[in-house]
Each structure stands twice: as C-alpha cells, then as structure tokens.
Write a structure and sequence with these properties.
Elements (H helix, E strand, L loop, with lengths): L5 H7 L5 E4 L6 H17 L4 E6 L5 H13 L4 E7 L2 H11 L3 E4 L8 E8 L3 E2 L6 H10 L11 E3 L3 H10 L10 E5 L5 H9 L4 E5 L21 H9 L4 E5 L6 E4 L5 E2 L1 H15 L4 E5 L5 H8 L3 E5 L3 H11 L3 E3 L5 E3 L5 E2 L1 H15 L3 H5 L6 E2 L3 E4 L3 H15 L3 E5 L4 E5 L5 E6 L5 E8 L2 H15 L2
Parallel strand pairs: 2-3, 2-4, 3-7, 8-9, 8-10, 13-14, 13-15
Antiparallel strand pairs: 1-5, 4-5, 5-6, 10-11, 11-12, 15-16, 16-17, 18-23, 19-23, 20-21, 21-22, 22-23
Helix pairs in contact: 2-3, 2-5, 6-7, 9-10, 9-12
Family: Belongs to the phosphohexose mutase family.
GO molecular function, one term: metal ion binding
Cofactor: Mg(2+)
Length: 459
Amino acid sequence: MRTRSRAAVDEVVKAYDIRGIVGEGIDEDFVADAGAAFGRLMAAEGATGVVVGHDMRDSSPGLARAFAAGVAGRGLDVDFIGLASTDELYYASGALDRPGAMFTASHNPAAYNGIKLCRAGARPIGRDTGLADIADMLVAGVPAGDAAGGQVVRRDLLEDYAGHLRSLVDIPAGRTPVVAVDAGNGMAGLTAPAVLGPIADLRPLYFELDGTFPNHEANPLEPANLVDLREFTVAQGADIGLAFDGDADRCFVIDERGEPVSPSAICALIADRHLRAEPGATIIHNLITSAAVPELIADRGGRAVRTRVGHSYIKAEMARTGAVFGGEHSAHYYFREFHNADSGMLAALHVLAALAESGGTLSELMDGYDPYEQSGEINSRLADSREQAARRAAVAEAFADRAAAMDELDGLTVHLADSRAWFNVRASNTEPLLRLNVEAPTRAEVDELTAEVLGIIRG
C-alpha cells in the first residue's frame, strides 16, 4: 500500500480533474491507486462498474489500463472503450449508467496527462464532490484489493455515440454543407468522420491521431492555432470551419470568410434555438461569457443563471436549475439532453442546423449575436498563488473608484461605471497562469482597458 505526501497529491488533484506532467506527478502507479480509490468511492455509492476511455497521447493507453486494473481490484467491472473523445466518454457513462474516467490533458502540451471523472449519467466529480475524498485516500494509501475481483471488457461505442448525437438535432435536408475541420491531431480525427461524415462534405485537416501535436497545439482558444484552419476554410470554399481541442469536447467556429466566430456568439445562437423550442427555459452562462448572452436570454423571455468557470460547476448548476443549455466562452457547450454534459460535436450540429435553416452564409447568420468586442483570453505566467492574489488585489484597488459593480464569484470581475465595459481576472485551475478577459462596446475601449489591467498584473 503506497502513501503519498499531501503536497504531491494536491499538486495534481485540481478543482475539477486530475492533471500533471507524466513521469513527475502522474505515472502508472499513481493512476492505479487513483483507480482503486475511485473504485472504492463508487462501490460505496452502489456502483458495480466503471467505463474508461483515453485520448491519443502516447502515455494515455498505459495509464488508462493501469487505472482500469486499480478499479477492477476493488471488485468493479470495467468497460474499456479505448480511444475516445471526452464527450464520447460522457455518452458511454450515460448510456451504460456507469461512472466514468477519461484520460486526457485536453489542450495541454504533450508532456501532460490527467483524468476527468464522473458518476453514472455523466454527473460531475470535482474537488467538493469526490476528488477531495480520492486525494485523502491517495495520501493515506489505498489497499489494492483483489486483482481478480472485477472484469475488464473492451467495448466500441463510437458508432452508437455518433448516431445518438445526430438523433438530437434535426438538420433540414438540402444542400450538403462543406465543412472544414481542424482536428489538431486530436480525437476529432476519430469522431468527426463518425458524427459529421454522413451529413457533410468533410474537408479534413490534421486528422492523424498524434499526441505530440506536430502541427500546432490542440488549443483553439489561442488565435495562432486557428491560422491554418482560417486559410484552409477559405481555400476549400467551405461553408464553415470547425476546430477542436485535443480531447474534442470544445468546438471553435470559423465562418466562410475565414473569420473566427466568438464562442459567446455560438452560446447566444444555441441559447436562442433552445428558447424558441422551450420558451421561458433556464440557460447557464459562466462569468466570462459575453454580456450579449444574458441580454439575449432576457430578450427571448428565458432565465439566465451566471456561474463560475469549470465543467463540474456548470454541470452541477445545470442539474440544480433544470437548465436546457449552458455555455462557456472557452467553447464548452452543455446540453440537458446530453446528460448535462458538454459536447463540441453536438454544438457543431446545432450550428449546422441553424445554418441550413437560414439559407444564407454563416457570417450573415451570426450577425447580431456578437455586438461587443473582446480581448480573448490573455494569460500571464505567475506560478506563486500568493503573487496571483496580490496582483488581483492590486487590480481591485486600482478600479475601486471606477467600478459600478465588483465581485469575486470566480477571481475578480469588474464592471465599469462609465461604460458597458467589464473584465475578469482569475487564476487557472490547471496551469500556473492568471487569465484576463476584457469586453467593451468598441475595440479602442478593449485595447485601452486590456493594457491598463495587464500593466498592473505584469508590473
């Protein structure tokens, strides 16, 4: 029975997942014990099995198998689905009614890996809902149990997952859309053909599964990682471009001109579709989503609920409020009909359906959903949490006399008194970064406010 220091465990057990550098914080011994701890926790809640999937990183298959062995050692069976996107794992958790574990570090560089955990029905597990218990067991030591206690069975659910997603969105018949997709050498290289292939003229870019990310990082939130898709979309004469992150749970959209569409605008579009189908429904948005989203929800007669950033928080709020849809400016989109879980592919299907219904171009469709200018997420590397807190406090002090409202729901959010401008400064839950998001009615206001806040953050 292995024990670990509290500092070592807390280094990789984050707010809503487990994540670290392979060979340092994360290795097969660690994840085997994490599997045993997870199995023990789930067995105590009445579960009899767990579903396990992994992305295309070189370390993922071995880590996933070690975790599965740890779970099986606690007497639970394991459905091992192998290569999968994170939303396919969520589908499996719902379809099989089993807790799940997905091995991925999402958009992080190749050296990283981690585990996203959920209860049966894709119900989230975060620090306050199980991860802290797993961390405590890893510190104290988890008995391995009987290695023959549970069975590990290989299952392939890709086609079932793809068919289920397509069944959730009615796309009008007509001209087959030309869809350019940049998989970033991530899991969309496997799932995009399965989901979108039957309904679109798919134009693939970087579909080869390669966890070293040879072409660009699988993080479409960074504008540099969208350059290839922007050019490719125009060159292919595509109606739309789609970019996915490494585990393909986030989807970014490019219009026919090669221009990025704000994820907040996609939130507004999908919220609009849901409110037309279910008037008065509740929609979740996180605190860095554009003000255009709650404004549209109110205009359409819906109920907007603001929450902090992070999938476990959004999913919990979805369940608590009965919301039909939730969106984050980071391009995570959550759906009640998908177990309150996020799916970039399902969001893409909604955009394709709206595009087909409009009969026009994507740029025309999105006109009006994005009335504000945004900075995008700007990161400053500050590894010391005390220094991060000190910089946030300095920002709060600097804007105290100019703020109409200021809160600390997640980091620091400031709404200016003399403008419709606002900004948020928050610490990353997965990296040693302080993140800044700014929004204002004009680009000049965004640029001026961004420079001022960064001047405080970066000294």
